[in-house]
Design brief:
By secondary structure, this protein is α/β, with parallel strands linked by helices. It is built from six helices and seven strands.
Length: 202
């Protein structure tokens, strides 16, 4: 059993679509639903928690990627300073792009983020357990759209992926460049070595 069209999250004005306080609470709830569906049906059950508009927006074959490492969204404390990240990457011959500027219109903002991803060889992401925040679940890992969107744009995701069923089902080995820790001094050399071997076919 595969749930491919789970409920919306704060898309509709209806109360049922506004019952979760955060996206993390919604993801946690959906994970519990999947476990219950499997218990009731007695068959292996999973869900596709995030999709990406690969046909409409994705550009996985784009070869012109002038940015080695693109930062997207919140990062672990060591990666939060874009100026420091740029200097650190430059010392290894890497080009670094900081957080894309926020655009008030949601669709335009998403397109801006996707354009930044499409111009990068690697994007930077860490699981909620590797990089916790007060609005993420403290004990359950989950895959987010930051990962699937980057992959739809043809970028490899550098970081620490979440250990969860969605990761096992949706991410292939070449989709990620696993970093040893959240410390940029340990991560940048790994990214530099990978970028040196990068080709558009990766």
């Amino acid at each position: 059993l595969v749930a491919t069209d789970p409920p919306y999250f704060q898309v509709k004005e209806d109360d049922w679509d506004r019952q979760w306080g955060s996206a993390d609470a919604f993801l946690e709830w959906m994970g519990l639903c999947v476990a219950e569906w499997q218990r009731v049906t007695g068959v292996p059950t999973t869900w596709v928690p995030f999709g990406a508009d690969v046909l409409g927006r994705g550009r996985p074959g784009l070869a012109d990627r002038g940015v080695d490492l693109q930062r997207i969204g919140r990062q672990p404390e060591g990666w939060e300073d874009d100026a420091a990240n740029e200097r650190r990457c430059a010392a290894y011959g890497l080009t670094y792009a900081g957080r894309p500027a926020f655009v008030p219109d949601p669709d335009a903002n998403q397109r801006s983020v996707e354009s930044a991803m499409a111009a990068a060889k690697y994007t930077l992401s860490f699981s909620n357990l590797a990089s916790p925040a007060d609005y993420t679940h403290p004990t359950r890992a989950y895959l987010t759209g930051r990962w699937t969107d980057a992959l739809a744009q043809g970028a490899v995701v550098a970081g620490i992926p979440p250990h969860c069923a969605a990761t096992d089902r949706l991410l292939w080995p070449e989709a990620t460049l696993i970093l040893p820790s959240v410390d940029p001094d340990e991560g940048v050399p790994v990214i530099a070595a990978a970028a040196a071997a990068w080709t558009p076919d990766l």
